[in-house]
Amino acid sequence: MVQTGSMKKYTKGNLLLINDNPLNYAMSNIFEIGATWPKAYDRVAVGKNGPYVLACFRAEGADDRWWYMSHDEYVVLVEGEMTIEYREPREPIEEGPHKDVKGTEMGSMVLRDGSLASLPARVAYRMKAAKKSLALLQTKHSPWVTYAWKEICLTEE
Questions:
Q1: 127, β-bridge pairs
Q2: Partner residues linked to 32 by β-bridges
Q3: Distances in whole angstroms, Cα of residue 64 to Cα of each of 22, 27, 100, 128, 153
Q4: Burial class of 99 by CB neighbour count within 10 A (0 to 12, 13 to 18, 19+)
Q5: Which of 10, 103, 108, 133 is buried deepest, with most CB atoms within 10 A?
């Protein structure tokens, strides 16, 4: 497998532009976010198109929250290994993070470098990783997405 970057070895984002200014483009380095972002499982937006958001997060240890969304989400594990546990709620619950979700256990999935997992609508999930891992999450805009463009994008030449 050819690896172009990792959380241990990355270069701040770069663009090859012809007759343009790189400050005209929003760009970030997901490996830098994974390596330096202070909070694990914090969903940091790296791209947005209308209501759709591409976020990345560092998975490390256990995320004690169960997540529940009314729309499908997808996660790609870029680096490391992560387990996702699924649970079908017994009763309707609000979107977002929950300390616990009563319901039927639906199993788990182990993701490794390059694995893609579906996070189905109206199914609760939580994640854990024994070692620092990096994931990309396709989701929709919500109060639980961190927008930190100034911190993650190129702002100076």
A1: 84
A2: none
A3: 39, 31, 9, 9, 29
A4: exposed
A5: 133
Residue count of the chain, please give it: 157
Select 42-150's CATH number: 1.10.150.530, 3.65.10.10, 2.60.120.650, 3.40.50.2000.
2.60.120.650
pLDDT in tens, 42-100: 999 988 889 999 999 999 999 999 999 999 999 999 999 999 999 999 999 999 999 99
Residue 153: strand, helix, or coil: coil
Nearest in space to 66 (alpha carbons), one of 41, 46, 45, 44: 41
Q: How far apart are CA 33 and CA 38, in angstroms?
A: 9
Please provide the DSSP assignment of 47-93 as one string: EEETTEEEEEEEEEEE--PEEE-SS-EEEEEEESEEEEEEEEESS--
Residue 100 tokens, joined: 């616990």
pLDDT range class, residue 114, cuts 50, 70, 90: very high
**25 has pLDDT over 90:** no
DSSP state of 22: G
